[in-house]
Amino acid sequence: MAVTFNEEDKLFILHTNHTTYQIKIGPFQTLLHLYYGKKVDCNLDYLMQTMDRSHCGNPNEAGTDRTFSMDTQLQEYSTFGMGDYRISCLEVLNKDGSCAADLRYKSHNIKISKYQLEHLPSVYAGDSVTTQTLIITCIDSVTNLEVDLYYGVVEEYDVITRAVKIRNMGMKPIELIKAFSTCLEFPSTHFDLIHFYGKHAMEREFERTPVGHAKLSVESMRGLSSHQHNPFVILADQAATETSGECYGVSFLYSGNFQAQVEVDQIGQTRFAMGIHPAFFRYEVKPGEEFVTPEAAMSYSSEGLQKLSHNFHKLIRNNVCSGKFKDIRRPVLINNWEATYFDFNTEKLVQIAKAAGQLGIEMLVMDDGWFGTRKDDYSGLGDWVVNTKKLGTTLKELTDQVNAAGLKFGIWFEPEMVNEDSDLYRKHPDWCLQIPGRPVTRCRYQLVLDLTRGDVRNYIYDSISAILTSARVEYIKWDFNRSIAEVWSALKEKTHQGQVFHDYILGLYEILDRLTTDFPEVLFEGCSSGGGRFDTGMLSFMPQIWCSDNTDAIDRLKIQYGTSFGYPISAVGSHVSAVPNHQTGRTTPLSTRGVVAMAGTFGYELDINRLTEAEKEEIKEQVKIYKRNYDLINTGDYYRLTNPYETIGYTAWQFVSSDKTRSLLSVVYHQSHGNPDFHTLLLRGLKEGSIYRVTGTVQNNNGTVQNDNETVQNNKGAVQNDNETAQNNKEPIQNDKTAIQEYNGAALMNAGFVLPTPWGDYQSFQYELTMCLE
Predict the structure, then answer these.
(1) What is the pTM of this model?
(2) Catalytic site residues?
């Protein structure tokens, strides 16, 4: 059994395949944390220690015993106001004005399969995993506040989920001012906090900070999970690496404001807690009502960051994402935004579609500018009516022509927003989040619709439904292009305005649930100016999210590296765009752009009609490579072979199939230097006793000759043919020298794979490895 209770020792034990979590009903019915880590099969309550410490208060029941204090014990769910002065998970404002909650164990329940949360995303049980649920009920006997602590065990992925249900069984209303979802305690401090900070166009950058006695906080108060901080964090042993050491990951299944805090207390113990951000969070719970926190998914690895990532990748792919597109191959698409911006009509789009179809691309996505009076980003948002005058046709006529060219059709929406210059705003100005009497704060010259309102939610659903039923639309890109300010709803009383942030997210989830249920044949992709709402909550409704508006291949090395720690490659929207890049002005080879974009859901953001015939042939080959390796990329194990923040000069990653018979190796050099070093790269994930056939085509700016994976050189350097050198921002010339060689798996992982020497900046190499079957 994954969950057991030892009645004699009052001990809860949760087991996954490789981990153990232990909880103790301690003195005075307190709920204490004992252990979370590598699997053990014994009672660990000997770890609980007590001592008389000055200024650490004792429960009333302790009498003259001054050795037991909630200020020094490791706990399962900490509360404020009863003598624990560390990070709290629960803060309650009682009707008498007091701010205290004293939770003690009342009862528990063990259930087969995984619990589900109503109205909130949660990990679900599937056929391929074994799951179980533990619910521990605690009570504050003074106020009759009951708190159910939910633990969901997913054995095969070494995952334990946490959520909390807070129920008012008293006679008076209470107000929640903080309600976190999870708490983790450790008896010592030896951790770094790894988190993923950023900004628009540079999301999820990697940062590793030692945990000390000052609180560290990773958070968003922007109304969305944000570009600035991501709701996935890692506590790693200070010596942990990709392949060794202890680390704990926590993924918050929520798309709104969040906070993750960690601190070392006065006696060297570490506490971590995570949940809804308490800033402007005031949630009234009347007698008989309850509040449910979002879910947090936790995983432990004793084998470093790589194994931790694999746990989350499998969990999200198989037991968070849902619907038909979780498992089937998604189409290679082309989006018209960077090709046309607002300047397009049906004729232009069909020309792009026809050219794309000849190269193996399977879907055209029409981006912003197809509706209302939309000719720029100052007007039209909210008026989701096709501008037939601009297109020159109806939407159905457009989709029919795109389908006739052999492509599926997709469309862009930004349903949560409105421009003041729109029919919707002129008719319903009260549908926006804005504070009466205060000037509005605009961002991208738009305001945010109030999704806490049922009439607004119905309008959004009806508008999108009308489009989906009017033509054959098979994909929606769902955008969200600003942070939320002026958090005030016209329909809520002043005492309930502190509920708006959370109710907004519940409203969003309701709309997404209705749409994905009613239109299961439509592929939804999330977006928020790129990766501003890249979180596991959104992945519960849509299996992929646009990773970043920054499509520059070199910047994407860092963005996609950081994203990979907590999210599977199948969730990462990544496309090849035109050069010079629209965000950075950098020119990189088409081959490199293709290699980087293949570490995600593959597509294009350019006007194919402006490309040379050679470039079109190269795109055709890229599409073939991606389709051939789709399952390997999207369901295989992902290995970060190098760190793009280090100075070795290149970034490398690898996909390996679950049966280890196939692998795809990708390498991108950052810069080229005179008299370069040799590089030998250690691969991972292969079968040691097997032989692998390695094939790869080298693509260089000057046609550098490659023979059997070695660059041919003489005393003057790499052989160069002057008439083939790429100059003046021209695309790289493909040298169709395909190398085929066989290697022992053990040799590739322990002795290494010799990389070719690049000629020119930003060169890439890609190799397919296939096990030679006896």
Answers:
(1) 0.94
(2) 535, 615
